[in-house]
Amino acid sequence: MAQIETKSIDSKLRIAYKKDAQRSDHPIVEDFESMLRQIENRVNVNSFKNTEYFTYSNISGLHRIPLSTICYVHADSNYVEIVLADKTKIVLARTLKSIEIELRSFGFVRCHQSYLVNNKHILSFEKNALLILDNGDRIPVSRRKKKSIRALCF
């Protein structure tokens, strides 16, 4: 079962440090923020701050992909194909509705019976009811959703 991981690494570091600092034998550090900045500089944590992930499992194990890399999700019966910005495709035995419920609050919109699109990857909306994505793919928009997609995205 896939799930969204939204906790930032920064908050995980803060929680871990505070738990460690509560031990009686731990030396008291005067400037916690200064120490945190030093850690961030060493590990380059800033690039991972507030990154949300889509987590899924398959035969080879458990995997995480940043939501920002997902361009769209295409459904075919009870299977979905997740297409990433680099055009990598991931096939899962899930329904589009279950994926939509998880991703709706992260800027993903249902534009067609078979497509769920990441709003951040939409470049343009053509008159013939096609969304053009930044990876070059063209996604159809249903007649019923044409107005709402145009209003939501532009």
List keywords for this structure.
OB fold (Dihydrolipoamide Acetyltransferase, E2P), 2 domains, 5-stranded antiparallel beta sheet, globular
What does this protein structure show overall?
- By secondary structure, this protein is an alpha+beta fold.
- It folds into two domains: 3-48, no CATH class; 69-153, LytTr DNA-binding domain (OB fold (Dihydrolipoamide Acetyltransferase, E2P)).
- 27% of the residues lie in helices and 34% in strands.
- The chain contains four helices and eleven strands.
- The protein has helices at residues 9-21, 32-43, 96-103, 146-153; strands spanning 3-5, 53-58, 61-66, 70-76, 79-84, 89-92, 108-112, 115-118, 122-126, 130-133, 138-140.
- The strands form three sheets. It has a five-stranded antiparallel β-sheet, covered by helices on one side.
- Strand 5 and strand 6 (89-92) form a beta hairpin.
- The protein is globular and about 60 Å long.
- The two termini are 33 Å apart.
- The model is unreliable at 44-49 (pLDDT under 50).
What would you say about this model in short?
This protein is of the alpha+beta class.
Ordered list of secondary-structure elements with their pairings:
Layout: E1 3-5, H1 9-21, H2 32-43, E2 53-58, E3 61-66, E4 70-76, E5 79-84, E6 89-92, H3 96-103, E7 108-112, E8 115-118, E9 122-126, E10 130-133, E11 138-140, H4 146-153
Antiparallel strand pairs: 1-2, 2-3, 4-5, 4-8, 5-6, 7-8, 9-10, 10-11
